Amino acid sequence: MIPLTVTLAAAALAGTAGGHFNPLHHSGAASPYFDAPSQFGISPSTPPQCVVDQAAYIVRHGSRYPEPGSFAGWQALFAKLQNASYTARGPLAFLPSWVPPVDDIPHEPLFLSSTGSTEAFSLGVQLRKRYRFTAGGDNFTVWAAGQQRVVDTATYFLQGYLSQGNYFNEPEKNRGTIVAMPDSVNYTFADSLTPSTGCPAYGSGDTSSKANDYRAAYQPAVARRLNQYLDGLNLDGSDIAVMQDLCGFQSEIDGDIRFCDIFGESEWKDYEYAHDLNYYYGSGPGNPFSATVGYPWIQAVTGLLLRGPDNRRNGDNFVPPPLVMSFTHDNDLPPVVSALGVWNSSLSPGIFPLSTNGPDARRTFRSSNLVSFRGYIALERLSCDSQAPPSEVEHAAGHVLPAPGTTASAEKYVRIRINNAVVPVPGCTTGPGESCPLKAFAAHVRERLAVAGDFVERCNLQDVMNATGTLDIFTKVPSEKAQSFTLVVPQPYAVTVP
Ligand SMILES: *[C@@H]1O[C@H](CO)[C@@H](O)[C@H](O)[C@H]1NC(C)=O
Ligand SMILES: *[C@@H]1O[C@H](CO)[C@@H](O)[C@H](O)[C@H]1NC(C)=O
Ligand SMILES: *[C@@H]1O[C@H](CO)[C@@H](O)[C@H](O)[C@H]1NC(C)=O
Ligand SMILES: *[C@@H]1O[C@H](CO)[C@@H](O)[C@H](O)[C@H]1NC(C)=O
Ligand SMILES: *[C@@H]1O[C@H](CO)[C@@H](O)[C@H](O)[C@H]1NC(C)=O
User: Fold this and answer.
1) Which one of 141, 173, 317, 474 is most buried, counting C-beta atoms within 10 A?
2) Residues 178/155, Cβ–Cβ less than 8 Å
3) Is 395 contained in some domain?
4) Distance separating alpha carbons of residues 399 and 49, to the nearest angstrom
5) Backbone φ and ψ of 441, nearest 5°
6) CB 77 within 8 Å of CB 249
């Protein structure tokens, strides 16, 4: 474990490193994807004596248009700005000409934006280059919750990940499979990528209304400050809510960042902190059922990492690829943080649970660095030699030397990366790059069961038919309990050239 003083200093710098304050890195769930700053000073590069031989990701869908509910808020703001006669000055002089950035109302709200498609495609490219696991990528399988924007994210990911070269003449050599399943239903229980709706008790642990109280407390003063620039129109707290959301959303929809420029740094930090409180107390460690619903994914993935990339076990009908990709929604990521027990440092008294009075710069739980669009939690299995590669190497003709980490004596380790940044496993950082030895990681996961509890029992499902606490989708394709089904990407097509 790194010394406390180092942890705190690094945490205090997070977010301000580089000097220039960027509101798009402090917009919580409205932030387009960005690599999170290192909170612990650990390089995200794979250590030189290691290779990643297996990895599992759980990913939020890419940037999207607003949900219909928040779009109604944008339209109400537009109506208010257009309906009145007033003078707008200085930073607000653009308001009379602003129109909401949705130009196809029946088709855009809810769905991915072009930025979201790009984020998904570029993650595919990035992971193919980072791991170089599957040659060509024929029939590479990924998993997705069934809502259209999630399946679309998986689709664009696959198109970025698959080798592009053969699409035109041999598309069948470059096909991906998406294992999709019902999204946010209550009848697949833990066997789902949206398990919280399968836990009837979960809602009773959700105290995210603390975030609304926090918003109601800071927004009126922001409205008063901005009203100095208006004669004949009065902004209120709910207008501030919409205008701050529009920074992240409008930047990813059409690149317009005028709403980003009208708020000050402390106003952005209050906005971000309201998102933090929302996720911490809604789906994160502040909800006592959070770890319970996040645990089945961790348990399933840890089982795969223990077996290694190619092993089949009795009863399985499917061997997942070495890169296991799960696509889902924002609220399904904080439960995985809770189940892993990261970002909940009891070494920092007074920081957790998050205070409703205001942000503490030392907190590690930051929504912007987790549930940004296309945000992710990744577990990487590292295979490492005991020493860094030598600086001088003999080559015998006709013999390719094994790459670092690929010999039989290589040891296995695990690292957690959240939006690229390495987040140490609590109390387990003895491996290369502060990784955790695989067996110790598995022991940590077993210990976390004491916090997570049994899904069926904690969620009060003992008497419910078919209730399950196990996620089997990665080794059963299709899975009966998860009601999973497969989709082929790209769809078979034929091009007729005249
Ligand atoms: C528009 O203005 C009229 C008259 O001033 C007012 O009654 C109405 O509530 C306004 N509508 C909106 C959406 O602000
Ligand atoms: C591709 O993989 C899926 C499982 O993800 C399987 O159902 C399907 O049969 C495979 N297709 C081919 C052509 O191998
Ligand atoms: C699932 O939802 C339906 C409809 O609201 C309800 O009747 C049913 O009892 C729920 N099932 C569980 C296990 O909570
Ligand atoms: C977070 O830490 C607190 C204090 O150490 C502990 O009581 C709580 O159970 C932890 N939450 C989770 C989800 O691990
Ligand atoms: C339980 O699962 C079986 C088999 O999949 C299914 O036929 C049945 O409808 C399920 N029962 C309930 C209550 O969901």
Assistant:
1) 474
2) yes
3) no
4) 20
5) -65, -45
6) no
For the record, the structure tokens of 9 come out as 């200093």
Residue among 344, 345, 444, 447 whose CB has most ligand 4 atoms within 8 A, to mutate = 344
Neighbouring CB atoms inside 10 A of 496's CB total 4
Residue 126 CA to residue 311 CA, distance in Å, equals 26
Are the C-beta atoms of 237 and 220 separated by less than 8 Å? yes
Please write the tens of the pLDDT for every residue from 331-352: 999 999 999 999 976 556 778 8
Q: Are residues 275 and 293 in the same domain?
A: no
| Helix 209-227 / helix 265-282 crossing angle, nearest 10 deg | 160
- Give me ligand 4 centre to Cα 426, in Å: 12
Alpha carbon 331 to its chain's center:
9
Structural domain range at position 23 = 1-30+67-110+209-282
Catalytic residue selected from 245, 270, 330, 332: 330
pLDDT in tens, 116-132: 999 999 999 999 999 99
Give residue ranges with CB within 6 A of ligand 4.
Answer: 285, 291, 338, 341, 344, 346, 352, 451
- On whether the CB atoms of residues 373 and 252 are closer than 8 A, the answer is yes
Residue linked to tokens 């989709």: 487
Helix (H, G, I), strand (E, B) or coil at 149: helix
- Among 282, 304, 328, give the residue marking a domain's end: 282
Q: Domain containing 482 — which CATH number?
A: 3.40.50.1240
- DSSP sequence for 401-468: PPPTT-STT-EEEEEEEETTEEEPBTTB--SGGG-EEHHHHHHHHHHHHHHH--HHHHTT-TTSTT--
Q: Tell me the per-residue pLDDT of 76-108, one tens digit each, with 9 for 90 and over.
A: 999 999 999 999 999 999 999 999 999 888 888
